[in-house]
Design goal:
Mean pLDDT: 82
CATH class of the largest domain: Alpha Beta
Oligomer: single chain
Distance between the termini: 25 Å
Strand order of the largest sheet: 2-1-3-13-6-14
Order of helices and strands: HEHEHEHEEEEHHHEEHHEHEEEHHEHEHH
CATH architecture of the largest domain: 3-Layer(aba) Sandwich
Helix content: 25-40%
Strand content: 5-15%
Number of strands: 15
Number of helices: 15
Length: 508
């Protein structure tokens, strides 16, 4: 089973805080998990509570990645509002009209055709105008058209757009339509982005998350015969593989220092959260004891097993290069990254803290929403109902390889290693805070800056106690050699340090 289309990285988001030196920036030079998370929590609280700066530019969306959606930025992004309820009254079957539906590139044509046929059974005289939007321009299109009489009726939006658009009042509340939309049958791991302050505002369209791609040959040579079943077993496996590394540049687990999305499983497995909503107020909680415990574990893991630059994130595609060149045995990757690998590999979902469990992962993908300005909301709800038909959902999962909206369709992902690993995330998907102002927190690079500070090792010291300038990677981190034997792994190639983009990639 192949994933539909070539998924494009979100690369056009204009962000502040790019190109910062390790351990600097909005958080200042700090050394510990405690101080870094404290500063980040305070910054998140401030951003989610207050208005956006007047000169904030709307980010551009250039791919279906939920973490950097390119959401329109309202004048006051911190103010969550109750969405206006959708009109669910069904028009007469004899209605002659045109329903405009905006979709993005990933949904297969055959799926949309099938949904259209079901819709036509109820409304044979309504034409459905399907418009394929482009990730590079859809944000501006949404800003320009949603508030106007020329609004599309149904829109596909990246799942981190949902809270912001709902907070702006640009998409309708779907609470009155709950009974029509099979909400009790939805894939559990996709539901977190569909509400704002517990009000239903969107329907999940699809999702996908990060899973572990690993060098099966290297792991087998290190004595790891099967994928680990817990985080402890995962660490033990990396220990074995690292001890067989070919050089001090070898990474049993490739993990760049600004890879904040990849850090979330460790936070969530310990019971931590980025931020929490209490009495209509969002508060940053990345500094909780649980969050700090998870980040401390990750810090130990990364410093021991990763030689990735501390000032880069995974959007550089360096992890694919490192894996293919035999300089990394494993990395958290998205499906399209895995499909681009040329080196033989296996795939498994990152295990959780408990034995035989799967760690929660940040889910990227899209939601479907109804325009608040649409005069055809009854027809829009009917189209959503057709899209959620079980036969349509089965076809969607089977042909796209993504997690579908209905849990019953997840079984269609079985039979292919990449999609089976995605299926393991069906109940484990998590999301960034469903706050209208979250995009501002991403723009300000709060979490990447925090993580870079935490994952940058202190400079090595000379015997005299002064900092040493030797043995550093491109990201500025020291490169202690792996412990134990340095016998080469079968097929593992040599390779020098990877160039980086200096941390200028967007927060994806």
């Amino acid at each position: 089973m192949r994933l539909a289309g070539a998924v494009v990285l979100v690369g056009a988001l204009a962000v502040s805080g790019c190109g910062k030196e390790a351990g600097t920036g909005i958080l200042g030079p700090v050394d510990s998990v405690t101080s870094a998370t404290s500063d980040a929590a305070a910054a998140i609280t401030t951003v989610l509570a207050g208005p956006a700066p007047a000169d904030t530019a709307a980010p551009e969306a250039s791919g279906p990645d939920a973490d950097a959606s390119g959401s329109p930025v309202p004048a006051e992004s911190g103010a969550d509002t109750t969405p206006v309820p959708v009109t669910t009254k069904a028009p007469p079957r004899s209605t002659r009209d045109t329903l405009t539906v905006w979709v993005l590139p990933e949904t297969p044509d055959a799926v949309l055709t099938r949904a259209g046929r079901l819709f036509a059974k109820d409304y044979p005289k309504v034409d459905v105008n399907l418009v394929r939007q482009d990730w590079a321009t859809v944000t501006q299109q949404l800003q320009d058209r949603l508030p106007t009489p020329e609004t599309p009726d149904v829109v596909e939006i990246a799942n981190t757009q949902t809270a912001m658009l709902a907070g702006q009042g640009l998409i309708a509340g779907l609470e009155p339509a709950r009974s029509d939309l099979r909400t009790e049958e939805w894939t559990k791991g996709l539901t977190g982005s569909t509400t704002l302050n517990d009000d239903l505002v969107a329907v999940p369209m699809y999702g996908f998350g990060r899973v572990v791609a690993y060098d099966q040959q290297a792991w087998k040579a290190a004595g790891v015969a099967a994928p680990p079943k817990s985080m402890t077993e995962f660490t033990d496996a990396l220990e074995r593989v690292q001890n067989g590394g070919v050089s001090t540049d070898y990474s049993a687990f490739w993990f760049p220092g600004r890879y904040w999305q990849g850090s979330l499983p460790w936070i969530w497995e310990e019971g931590g959260e980025i931020a929490e909503l209490e009495q209509d107020t969002w508060t940053g909680t990345i500094d909780s004891g649980e969050s700090q415990a998870g980040l401390t574990q990750l810090q130990e893991l990364v410093r021991k097993f990763s030689r990735a630059p501390a000032d880069a994130d995974e959007t550089t595609a360096a992890q694919v290069k490192a894996f293919d060149e035999g300089r990394a045995s494993a990395a958290l990757m998205l499906p399209y990254e895995i499909e681009s690998l040329t080196r033989p590999h296996g795939v498994f979902a990152l295990p959780g803290k408990a034995k035989n469990s799967v760690a929660s992962q940040l889910i990227q993908g899209s939601d479907l929403a109804v325009s608040a300005a649409s005069s055809r909301q009854g027809l829009a709800v009917a189209w959503l109902r057709a899209f959620l038909d079980p036969a349509v959902q089965d076809q969607f999962a089977r042909t796209s390889g993504y997690l579908p909206a209905l849990a019953s369709a997840v079984k269609q992902l079985k039979g292919d290693p990449v999609t089976e690993a995605q299926a393991d995330l069906a109940d484990k998907g998590r999301f960034t805070p469903a706050a209208a102002g979250w995009v501002d927190a991403e723009q300000q690079q709060i979490l990447p800056d925090m993580l870079q500070t935490i994952l940058t090792p202190p400079a090595p010291t000379s015997p005299s106690g002064s900092p040493s300038t030797g043995g550093a990677s491109p990201g500025g981190e020291s490169l202690p050699g792996p412990t134990g034997s340095v016998a080469p792994l079968p097929g593992a190639g040599e390779g020098g340090p990877l160039p980086t983009d200096g941390g200028t990639s967007p927060s994806r």
